[in-house]
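Ticket #4471: structure output looks truncated?

Reporter: J.K.
Steps to reproduce: submitted the chain below (162 residues) through the standard prediction queue, then opened the result file.
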Amino acid sequence: MSSYADALLEFYTGEVLGEAVYSGLLAAARSDDERLKWATLLQLETETKAWLRVPLVARGVSVVEQPADRANGAAAAEQLKTQPWNVQMQALQGTIKNDFVPRYQAHADAARARGASDEEAVCRAMVEHEQAQLEFAERELAGDRTGSLEPVTKLLRFPLGR
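Returned output as attached by the reporter:
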């Protein structure tokens, strides 16, 4: 398993990528409802990225954002932006469920195995962060258009108004 510093960098890179994806999808939103939802997800990525800088700097890990990470996110948004909403939600659900949650959970499990409770807390927060986005997508796919943002907004320090 990779080091905690590697996990932090992976988390940070994921937030940079996520910001680019959500920003691209926000720019292509087709309704006020979609704009609010993409903007709220973008807010979550931005707040989380800022929060991650504290443990990154404490570990001596660079907080410089790599242009390639933004470019990868923009490319993903470009592929999704013309798709119907449910296809966008399916893509979000699949990526988070099959990629991000398992990888981040593995980092949390490794931190627990090392007996590093401070590291585990950061990793668990990142698992919760991904699970909130997953729950959003799942609620959208189930037809819950009014309550879908609740798992995301409860994590926000600066929630966007309706």
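Triage note (M.O.): checked the attachment and the full token line is present. The radius of gyration is 16 Å.
Status: closed, working as intended.
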